[in-house]
Amino acid sequence: MAEEIQFTFKCPQCGCATFEEILVNVTQSTAFERVNCDEDITEPDYQNTSTDGGEIARYQCQRCGFILKDEQGQTIANTQGLRQWLDKNGQAGVTFSG
Ligand SMILES: [Zn+2]
């Protein structure tokens, strides 16, 4: 069994538990096999979506848009920075898997 540390997010501003990674310069592709048609195509039957490339622009709270920043006040735009931010501000828990 492997031990993993799992962090949960809590927005310092609004308490929301969900945050989002904002990517820029992404190529997104979506697979589908069928579409619904009236006069126009209404709803492709999307199977899955994948993204390719892209750079992290920022991490932010999904509800209020609070942007994660490091101690120097710089916007966090990489996973290392995110990890450090969570070390200080996240809530860590240990889970077991495998
Ligand atoms: Zn928030």
Question: Which features does this protein show?
Answer:
98 residues; mainly beta; two-stranded antiparallel ribbon; 11% helix; binds zinc ion
Overall shape: extended
Distinct small-molecule ligands in the complex: zinc ion
Spatial separation of the terminal alpha carbons: 5 Å
Report on the biggest sheet.
Answer: 2 strands, antiparallel
SS-based class: mainly beta
Count of DSSP H/I helices: 1
> Taking Cα atoms only, what radius of gyration do you get, to the nearest Å?
18 Å
Note the run of SSEs as H and E: EEEHE
Beta content? over 45%
Helix content: 10-25%
Strand order of the largest sheet: 1-4
Structure described in brief:
By secondary structure, the chain is mainly beta. It is built from one helix and four strands; from the N terminus they run βββαβ.
Detailed description of the structure:
The chain is mainly beta and 98 residues long. The chain has one helix at residues 79-89; strands spanning 2-8, 19-37, 41-61, 91-97. It has one domain. The chain has one helix and four strands. The strands form two sheets. Strands 1-4 form a two-stranded antiparallel ribbon. The chain has a two-stranded antiparallel ribbon with strand order 2-3. The longest helix is centred in the last third of the chain and has 11 residues, at 79-89. It is extended, with a radius of gyration of 18 Å. Zinc ion (ZN) binds next to loops.
